[in-house]
Amino acid sequence: MLSFSKRPRKKPSKNPLKIFDQYEQGAPSHQNAINALPGWNCAFPPEFNLEAGKLPLYADDRIDWALRTFGSIEGKTVLEIGPLEGMHTYMLHQHQAARIDAIEANRLCFLRCLVTKEILRINNASFVLGDIQAWLKEREGVYDLAFASGVLYHMADPGEFLRLLALRANAVFIWTHFVLEEAMPTDDVRWLPFSGNVETRIVDGNPVRYYERSYHHANANASFCGGMKDRHFWMHRNDILMLLREFGFNEVIIRDEDLNHPGGPSFSLLARKTSGDA
């Protein structure tokens, strides 16, 4: 004998043609891919006619300066730390690097990088999700040039990061904030995110000042692109330059030093190993 469940049947949907929320109903487009991910910071080149963020990092004069100062990267290997949304990667791609390894720890930023890679056809770059310090420890070989723009001041251990980076790169471009007391009087509002705690750590035998800082819950926003830990440290300007020299970068060129930057004093620099030190 056949038996049938006596459970009441669910009422059919009033709209039997309803499409599930995870599907895109519009005509296929790159804009759909952008809209699928929240928190965009960067704009796309205007000729693509796409709406994302506001920052025009696809034409960043800091990266342009670094490439002109370093020389041609055609056929060279490049490491990019914290590619954000891939716009600097796009600039490196245009200069025909042989290979770009772009390491991003933020999951949403990583996914946005993949969208950018597809739209801008960045075919010589590999975006990899994970911790750069683990990458530097585990990988073999040395890159011709490394880029760390907007990275150092987000680190929980910035001195150790510089030490590891020096083992894996013959030249580095860095844009970073730093501490310089004479540029930030005690009543300067730029001190507010700092806890007041200053540690001295020994990095490869060198004493380095670490100034403790917090994001104060900024990481709750989808556009957050800071570090992996709330407790992170800024370095003193002089300590950054000292460590670079100690780690073998005997040529350091500072491009722009902005002591009045609203986020804190900052500079761009290109450091490289020369005269057989590489």
From TrEMBL:
Which keywords fit this entry according to its UniProt record? Methyltransferase, Transferase
Under the GO molecular function aspect, what terms does this record hold?
A: methyltransferase activity
The record's annotation in InterPro entries points to: SAM-dependent_MTases_sf
Which Gene Ontology BP terms does the record give? methylation
Q: Does the keyword Methyltransferase apply?
A: yes
UniProt KW Methyltransferase keyword: yes
The protein's name in its UniProt record:
Putative SAM-dependent methyltransferase
